[in-house]
Amino acid sequence: MVKPLAFKGDKKVKKRKRAPVDDDPSVPSSKELVLAQPDIPEEDDTWTSADIPNDIAGPVIFALPSEPPTCIACDAIGKVFTSELENIVEGDLATAEPHDVRQVWVANRVAGTESFSFKGHHGRYLSCDKIGMLSASSEAISPEESFLCIPTPETPGTFSIQTLREKFLTLNATSKTPEVRGDASEITFNTTFRIRMQARFKPRLKANKEEKAREKISRKELEAVAGRRLDDDEVRKLKKARREGTYHEAILDVRVKGKHDKYAS
Fold first, then answer.
1. Is 173 exposed, middle or buried (0-12, 13-18, 19+ CB in 10 A)?
2. How many C-beta atoms surround the C-beta of residue 193 within 10 A?
3. What's this model's pTM, rounded to 2 decimal places?
4. Residues 176-232: pLDDT tens digits?
5. What is the DSSP letter of 174?
C-alpha cells in the first residue's frame, strides 16, 4: 500500500495497537505482548539525490537551477509551473525537499524501454507536446509521456531530461517567473536538473539497509541457536562473524565448544 508523503516539520502520529482479550491465563497480558514485540524501524522519509538513471524510482522532485531555486510542479487541472523550494539549505539543490504535494512526481520505468514516466499528485502524467509545451493531463502513457534521464557528465548527480523528439526540458529564466519548456536542442546549464528522491527507494541505500538488518541479531537469538548461555566474548565473536559472513562456521565452533565443556565437567 502506498503511504502518504511526509514533509519536513510534520508531526508523526503513532498508532496504538490493541491486544486481543482472552480469559485464558496462559495467554500473556497486553503489557507483556507489547514488551515482547520487536522494535520496528520507522519508514525512512528522508530525501537524497539520484546519481544514475537506475536510482530513479518512487516520489521525486525536479530541482531547477533557477534563482531562487524552484522545481517543476503541477496543479489539479494539469497546468505545469515552477514552484519555489522552501526546504533547502543555502540554495544547494542537493539538499532540496518538497513542502507541497504538487511538487512531487512518482517515477516509474516505462516497460521495455529506458524511459521514465512521471505521475503527478492528481494521478496524471507529465507530458511534452510537439512545440515543447509541458502539461500533466494525460491519464495514460504514450511516447509524449516518456522521458529519458541522461546523466550530465560535467556535473555528477545531475540529469538532462530528454523527450521523444530528442529535445530537452529547459529552464527559461528570462521571464519574471521561471518557466520550463521541452524544446532545447542541446544540453546547457539550463537543462541540468537535479532529481531528488526518497532515500528508501534508492536501490543501493535500500540494499545497504537490508544488509544491516540481516546483521542485527540479539544475544537471546544467538543463545537459542547455540543451545546454551554465551559469555560476552562469544557474543561479540558471533556478531562479528555475522557481519563478515563466517557466522555458520563460528556458531558450529561454539556448539562444539559447549559439548566439550559439558563432558569435561
1. middle
2. 25
3. 0.65
4. 889 999 999 999 999 999 999 999 998 875 555 555 555 567 788 888 888 888 888
5. S
